[in-house]
Structure formats: structure tokens, C-alpha cells
């Protein structure tokens, strides 16, 4: 495990992120101080996973260490696919699913978000938390996320956007130099991409360094 480096290197930052989400009291303080962001927004966005009915199909990409898996309930009966390019992240997600008692609902798949190995309109819900800013081609990633979403399905996620304030510009620059971050995008770019791809009812909420987005693919 490295302090800094690409996600395939399993950087310490990834474990710290997971720990902060799993410890809400300390995590809320850390997020407020470090990112100026309200951790409760992540819990609220992930709550959409727990609201899925039996038989629903959910794609979580990149799943990272499996923080979104905690939103699943034992016996919920959904088909949850956790995809990531990093074997280390997939292994961490699998362990998280075991600890949460939802391993029977979770399948891990190694996949590149730029070319997802899933059919069109395959999922009822697609979640992508803290991933868009890491992808080398965010526009292509967004297109793939929408492609695999069924008409009427929901896409939701969070991202460290390029226009969330000059205060965070040093972090963006360090992240790119160390391989943690890709080129990223602005909020206007993200909403334009989604609108062009037929995603409607778009919302974009900024909280410090992070922005949360949600939309519905048009029928």
C-alpha cells in the first residue's frame, strides 16, 4: 500500500476514505475540515440503493473499497454488481459485503468504465461515487454509465469537480501529478453531457470540494 499513487497501487488515501465513511461521527468532522463537505450527502445518495425493490439490478462503478455496499440490506434481493479496475478494490468490496451480510447479492467484476462489459439498458440504478474525477476520459465514462442504464433508471454519484472553488485547486493539481485524479470536468460540462445523452430531471448539489448529481434516463 502506497501513500500516494494510482488506484491500482491501493493508496493509503483509499483506505482513509473508506474509514471516514464507516465512522460517521469522526468522518463528518474529517470531511468538513478536509473537503468542506457534508458526509451526510453521501449517505443520502447511497440510500437510493437500499430503496431498490427485490429483483432490481444495481451497478456500482468504481466500487472502490465498497462503501456503497453498506446501503444494501441483508435479504433485500437485488442483483448488485460492484465493478472496478483495481483488483485490490474489488477484494476490499468483497470483504465489506461479507461483513455486511450481503455477499449473496454482490458480484465483483473487474472492468474499465470507458468500455463496460455489460449490455445496454442492463441496470435499474447506476451509482458512481467519487469516481468521475479519477477517470482518464470522463465524457466517455459518462456515456458508458448512461448506456448501461435502462430507460427510466436512475444515475447518481459524486465527484470532485474542477469548478468547486480555488481553495481546492492545489489538491486537484497534486492529485493529477500523483495519478489519483484524471482531467476531471466542471459542473456545466457534466450536466451538458448528461442532457445530451437523454438524462432528465438533473440535479447537481455542491458541498465544498464535492458535487452530487442525480438524473433519470428518458424513456
What does this structure look like?
This protein is an alpha/beta fold. The chain has a single domain (7-217), classed as Vaccinia Virus protein VP39 (Rossmann fold, 3-Layer(aba) Sandwich), CATH 3.40.50. It is 36% helix and 22% strand. It is built from seven helices and seven strands, in the order αααββαββαβααββ. The chain has helices at residues 12-22, 24-35, 40-50, 87-100, 138-147, 169-178, 187-196, and strands at 57-60, 79-84, 106-110, 123-128, 149-159, 199-207, 210-217. The protein has a seven-stranded mixed sheet with strand order 3-2-1-4-5-7-6, sandwiched between helices. The longest helix is centred in the middle third of the chain and has 14 residues, at 87-100. The protein is globular, with a radius of gyration of 16 Å. It starts with 11 loop residues before the first helix and ends with a strand. 42% of the residues are buried.
Element layout with pairings:
Blueprint lengths: L11 H11 L1 H12 L4 H11 L6 E4 L18 E6 L2 H14 L5 E5 L12 E6 L9 H10 L1 E11 L9 H10 L8 H10 L2 E9 L2 E8 L2
Parallel strand pairs: 1-2, 1-4, 2-3, 4-5
Antiparallel strand pairs: 5-7, 6-7
Amino acid at each position: 500500500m502506497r501513500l500516494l499513487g494510482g488506484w491500482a497501487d491501493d493508496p493509503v488515501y483509499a483506505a482513509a476514505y473508506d474509514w471516514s465513511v464507516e465512522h460517521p461521527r469522526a468522518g463528518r468532522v474529517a470531511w468538513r475540515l478536509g473537503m468542506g463537505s457534508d458526509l451526510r450527502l453521501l449517505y443520502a445518495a447511497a440510500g437510493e440503493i437500499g430503496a431498490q425493490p427485490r429483483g432490481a439490478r444495481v451497478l456500482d462503478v468504481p466500487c472502490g473499497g465498497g462503501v456503497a455496499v453498506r446501503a444494501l440490506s441483508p435479504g433485500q434481493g437485488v442483483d448488485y454488481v460492484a465493478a472496478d479496475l483495481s483488483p485490490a478494490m474489488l477484494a476490499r468490496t468483497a470483504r465489506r459485503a461479507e461483513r455486511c451480510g450481503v455477499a449473496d447479492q454482490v458480484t465483483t467484476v473487474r472492468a474499465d468504465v470507458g468500455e463496460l462489459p455489460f449490455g445496454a439498458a442492463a441496470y435499474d440504478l447506476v451509482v458512481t461515487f467519487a469516481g468521475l474525477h479519477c477517470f482518464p476520459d470522463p465524457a466517455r465514462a459518462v456515456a458508458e454509465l448512461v448506456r448501461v442504464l435502462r430507460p427510466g433508471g436512475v444515475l447518481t454519484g459524486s465527484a470532485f469537480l474542477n469548478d468547486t472553488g480555488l481553495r481546492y485547486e492545489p489538491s486537484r493539481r497534486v492529485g493529477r501529478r500523483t495519478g489519483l485524479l484524471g482531467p476531471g470536468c466542471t459542473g456545466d460540462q457534466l450536466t451538458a453531457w448528461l442532457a445530451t445523452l437523454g438524462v432528465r430531471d438533473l440535479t447537481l448539489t455542491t458541498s465544498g470540494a464535492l458535487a452530487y448529481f442525480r438524473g433519470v434516463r428518458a424513456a
